[in-house]
UniProtKB/TrEMBL annotation:
Ligand binding (GTP 1): 9-16, 56-60, 119-122
Stretch of the intact protein here: 1 to 163 of 436
Origin superkingdom: Bacteria
Domain EngA-type G as annotated: residue spans: 3-163
Protein name (Swiss-Prot/TrEMBL): GTPase Der
Function summary: GTPase that plays an essential role in the late steps of ribosome biogenesis.
Homology family: Belongs to the TRAFAC class TrmE-Era-EngA-EngB-Septin-like GTPase superfamily. EngA (Der) GTPase family.
Amino acid sequence: MNNIVAIVGRPNVGKSTFFNRLIQRREAIVDSVSGVTRDRNYGKSEWNGKEFSVIDTGGYIKGSDDIFEAEIRRQVELAIDEADVIIFLVDVEEGITPMDAEVAKLLRKVTKPVMVAVNKVDNSMREKDAVEFYNLGLGEYFTIAGMSGSGTGDLLDALVKLL
Ligand code: GDP
Ligand code: MG
């Protein structure tokens, strides 16, 4: 299917929460693509009349830190191949971690559009904390709270323009 949006990022940044918000009240198409579905959730979403598929990555990552890193790298590389737009989710509570920096390094080489979404921006103080994410070297970022939905409208407005 065309118009594929992949959500990438290290564990615990809020990818699945955001994914579930995007596919809310939509039929999830889980397990429809062979081979890669065990660690990836596929869903359908729509915004401003534009339909798109969403991939939630990294659902079943477990193991040591080393396995984590290799697996996240694999997930990001898959997403780069598969998606039309990549949403790189990071977490304002934690700031930029070494793993975030690794992912950013991969994404800086990508010619497809990459949107940085700083998640868990639950209040205006966290809005200020988010400025450090300019240091990822991926340009402008969006601030969102996947849990409440705050900020997600602006992100989606920009997203569907890229599809
Ligand atoms: P994933 O591992 O990247 O898929 O992250 P999850 O979606 O499983 O979320 C990890 C944790 O972050 C959970 O405890 C969520 O409740 C929490 N979380 C997700 N979104 C938000 C948010 O907008 N604000 C806050 N404060 N916590 C959030
Ligand atoms: Mg998850």
